[in-house]
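Worked example 3 (structure in, sequence out).
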């Protein structure tokens, strides 16, 4: 049964040592090569934190702790809502298991990065995160 609540896509703002982790999309073609905060769809029955932790195991092979929200809700065309969360690495080194690459960026590299359109709205929030880290 479909819930009344908009389904959520969780995205992880993983910050360590003053840098943010970006992941490069493989597809679809219009997004391939662009950089995003890793994450994915929260499944029914999962809390957002549980779903995001699962996605980060699948996509990056890391164990994480999910913290508070970062930036605004981003409505997606399919009726879902995209939400970013502050995430801390607990174990493992992020690997591009489902992306073409991952990289750590500081403020200047983040500002210059070709982000997927949905994630661009968070740029000021992500820069603030990096500066207060
Ligand atoms: O990664 P996945 O394809 O499961 O993401 C589901 C939807 O959320 C897609 O439409 C994707 O473009 C979007 N998304 C996004 N920004 C992210 C993660 C996912 O726009 N950081």
């Amino acid at each position: 049964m479909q819930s009344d609540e908009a389904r959520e896509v969780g995205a992880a703002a993983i910050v360590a040592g003053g840098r943010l982790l970006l992941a490069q999309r493989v597809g679809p073609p219009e997004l391939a090569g662009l950089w995003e905060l890793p994450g994915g769809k929260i499944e029914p029955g999962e809390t957002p934190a549980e779903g995001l932790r699962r996605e980060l195991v699948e996509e990056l092979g890391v164990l994480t702790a999910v913290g508070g929200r970062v930036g605004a809700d981003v409505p997606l065309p399919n009726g879902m809502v995209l939400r970013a969360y502050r995430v801390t690495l607990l174990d493992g080194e992020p690997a591009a298991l489902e992306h073409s690459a991952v990289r750590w960026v500081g403020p200047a590299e983040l500002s210059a990065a070709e982000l997927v359109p949905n994630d661009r709205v968070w740029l000021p929030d992500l820069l603030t995160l990096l500066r207060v880290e």
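Notes: The CA atoms of residues 82 and 122 lie 11 Å apart. The first helix runs from residue 48 to 60.
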